[in-house]
Design goal:
alpha+beta; seven-stranded mixed β-sheet; 22% strand
């Protein structure tokens, strides 16, 4: 009898394998970073072969740590950085170039060109998304237009396209030797190529964007048996779950009812609100996205507020400014001052995502005076995360008519007490962290385990959820409003920086 369910969590900065027991507790975890490649300003790439190598390493290490054999693993779930685009040769298994990462802005001219006819919302009624550099369909088109011979190979049926989930599953299930070319509804809904109503590729939109249908993976549900692993220590284990990272975190937080929301604090921040089986079109700058689909059940949708840069701003303080040696040190530095000293940092490094969708914006420090020191910069960096989350929450309440009474949070930055308290203060609602903060991997593990009967119902998953800590708002309303007004003013200073 299998004792565990396993997840491969392929994120923006690292790959992680986690083993969970039936109560949703972490049994083992292995994590390895991969290189961030910046060929020029606004461009971000990853090496797909390096990612695949790291994935194999962390799977083996987590298995060893758990003292588990493949017979102990009920199923493997995959979760991934979404929109990051890989195009590879189906005959050789070699990528035609590095993966283009979700933060990358090189498709800005293509997006502008597509927007000329029908504006930024040209495809929104079908795909739930505005035209923006974020999504993977236009990235695939860029690769076909800019890599020698790629367009001809694609037209001949020799190239495959996918987000990172598709790349990992294809390699896990055999690669050039019969690997499965599939994705799930959540990942497909981030390409700009899937019709949210039919859950099928939209041939007209694919033709308009310029991506041949022959490149596209088969769309499956988020929780079903796809096939088995055919490489390494997991050979024979069923691959049975696939969710984009933010949808996986929503699943891991047991947000199964309409109106339940979670916010994940990672490289960027992503707030998702379950809207049940209705795909609610946003009027406030949010995305309409597939949240999850279990087997043959109807698809559940979500409204999403996507923020490009939150944890990445702390990494920037570490790697570019060398203000700290390790990301967790930002909290101590921020605590050395009582407030932000009038400084606001708007980290529009790759434009602004929700609720603005301005790819021509760039980052600013606003309100700088001689008084400002390193502590104020650290504090303003953390506060930027909380302010951006407030903007998204306001948009979510406007679109859904639901007033959030609390916010479930997860991801790496929720270990930061100063940030979580400020988040509760600026939202005016309690912020709640679960006992397992790495809910992304947990959600993928649940989806896979449910497909094979390791967990039988959503209620079992809900029963596993447990609160670890809660932060109650302490700031008075007048102070909160004053802070937020200044933030909004700072945001306007980023607009239209790139001509």
């Amino acid at each position: 009898m299998p004792k565990y369910s396993m997840a491969l969590d392929q994120g923006t900065t690292s790959s992680r394998a986690m083993v969970f027991d039936h109560s949703g507790r972490v049994v083992a975890v292995s994590q390895k970073e991969h290189e961030q490649i910046y060929p020029q300003p606004g461009w971000v790439e990853h090496d797909p072969m390096e990612i695949w190598a790291r994935c194999q390493e962390v799977i083996d290490e987590a298995m060893e740590q758990a003292g588990a054999s493949r017979d102990d693993i009920a199923a493997l779930g995959i979760t991934n950085q979404r929109e990051t685009t890989v195009v590879w040769d189906r005959n050789t298994g070699e990528p035609v170039m590095n993966a283009i990462v979700w933060q990358d802005t090189r498709t800005d001219k293509l997006v502008d060109e597509l927007s000329k006819d029908g504006g930024q919302d040209r495809f929104r009624s079908h795909v739930g998304l505005p035209l923006a550099t974020y999504f993977s369909g236009p990235k695939a088109r860029w690769i076909l237009d800019n890599v020698d011979g790629a367009r001809a190979k694609a037209e001949a049926g020799d190239l495959m396209f996918g987000n990172i989930d598709t790349w990992c599953i294809w390699n896990l299930t055999g690669g050039t030797n019969g690997g499965l070319h599939i994705t799930d509804v959540t990942n497909a809904s981030r390409t700009m190529l899937m019709n949210l109503g039919t859950l099928a590729w939209d041939e007209d939109i694919a033709a308009t964007i310029g991506v041949p249908m022959s490149m596209l993976p088969e769309i499956r549900s988020s929780s079903e048996v796809y096939g088995e692993v055919r490489t390494g220590n997991l050979t024979g284990v069923q691959v049975a779950g696939d969710l984009g990272d933010q949808q996986a975190a929503t699943f891991g937080q047991a947000c199964f009812d309409a109106g339940e929301a979670k916010n994940t604090y990672g490289t960027g921040n992503f707030m998702l609100l379950n809207t049940s089986t209705e795909a609610v079109q946003s009027k406030s700058g949010l995305l309409t996205t597939a949240c999850y689909k279990i087997g043959d059940q109807p698809c559940v949708y979500a409204l999403e507020g996507s923020i490009a840069i939150t944890g990445a701003l702390v990494q920037w303080l570490r790697d570019n400014l060398h203000m700290i040696q390790a990301a967790p040190q930002v909290e101590e530095l921020a605590k050395s001052v009582d407030d932000n000293g009038g400084l606001y940092i708007v980290p529009a490094f790759s434009g602004l995502f929700a609720p603005y969708w301005k790819s021509s914006a760039r980052g600013v420090f606003a309100g700088l005076t001689r008084y400002v020191n390193a502590g104020h910069i650290a504090r303003a960096a953390l506060e930027a995360t909380a302010f951006q989350t407030r903007e998204v929450m306001d948009a979510m309440e406007a679109d859904s008519g639901v007033t959030l009474t609390e916010l479930k949070v997860d991801g790496g930055m929720v270990a930061n007490d100063l940030l979580m308290q400020f988040q509760a203060d600026i939202l005016g609602v309690p912020v709640i962290r679960p006992q397992v903060a790495e809910t992304t991997a947990l959600g993928a593990s649940y989806a896979a385990g449910m497909a094979v009967g390791f967990w039988s119902t959503e209620q079992e998953v809900r029963d596993n959820w447990a609160e670890d800590k809660r932060w109650e708002p302490k700031m008075d309303a007048a102070k909160r409003d004053a802070y937020y007004k200044e933030w909004k003013k700072a945001v306007t200073r980023t607009f239209d920086w790139v001509e």
